[in-house]
Amino acid sequence: MAFEMARAPWSPEQQIERPRLAKKVLDTEDQAAFPRRMPRYIYFAANSKNKWGHQRGYRIQITSSAGDHVPEGSSMERAISWARYQLAVTRRKEEEPTSTSIYNQNDPWTPTVAFADFINNETITNEDLVAWITAGFLHIPHSEDIPNTVTVGNSVGFLLRPYNYYDLDPSIYSHDGVFFTSEQDFTACEVNPIACLPKTASCLPNFPPFTFDGF
């Protein structure tokens, strides 16, 4: 997001700063590694376009941040250097299957895998990519954790969201709720449209008949 100067329509002698979406293509691994502050919108775009003329892609939306790990000047920081980044995008390589190793914990001063070495300014344009995402939170125990810790505010994760990938919201094709009585044939398509799914979608299993208390 960027700001642009504009005249206030209701008061032309005054200026306002209005936000606008500024598109920027990240070409290298160094540009696509974010130690701290990330752009509000970041997404992976394909070469194909939807019917509106926008590049199909997926947006990464991180919902929790792990915070600071250890100082980068620490002698053992390279063993967990993946924690430097909220998001880092690298070219996919067979020799870089994981961001760390179980052996790093045994000798963090000479780590078997140092994730920081994965980011070496290689181009990521038109390449197979890997998005390394660090998600987490710090929980300090307090009296409200007794007898159990609430989940509100303690969630961890990220969202991989379609971004111009579809021509419209695909959920409009989802079936509505279905109601039928015990007198009706629940295997008939006109009564239960879900019953027709195995016939129209080969990837769906053929579920056995469902019965409950004679229903």
Rg estimate, integer Å: 25 Å
Tally of DSSP β-strands:
8
| Beta content | 15-25%
**What about the largest sheet?**
3 strands, antiparallel
Strand order of the largest sheet: 3-6-7
Return the average pLDDT rounded to an integer: 87
**Termini distance?**
56 Å
**Class of secondary structure makeup:** mainly beta
* Sequence of secondary-structure elements: EEEEEEEEH
The number of distinct structural domains comes to 2
Number of helices: 1
Model regions low in confidence, pLDDT < 50 over at least 5 residues: none
The shape is extended
Helix content: under 10%
SSE arrangement:
Layout: E1 2-8, E2 11-20, E3 33-34, E4 43-49, E5 55-62, E6 87-91, E7 129-133, E8 158-163, H1 197-200
Antiparallel strand pairs: 1-2, 3-6, 4-5, 5-8, 6-7
Structure write-up:
Strands 3-6-7 form a three-stranded antiparallel β-sheet, with no helix packed on it. Strands 4-5-8 form a three-stranded antiparallel β-sheet, with no helix packed on it. A two-stranded antiparallel ribbon has the order 1-2. It has two domains: 25-168, no CATH class; 173-201, no CATH class. A hairpin with a 5-residue loop joins β4 and β5. With 215 residues, it is mainly β. The chain has one helix at residues 197-200, and strands at residues 2-8, 11-20, 33-34, 43-49, 55-62, 87-91, 129-133, 158-163. It is extended, with a radius of gyration of 25 Å.
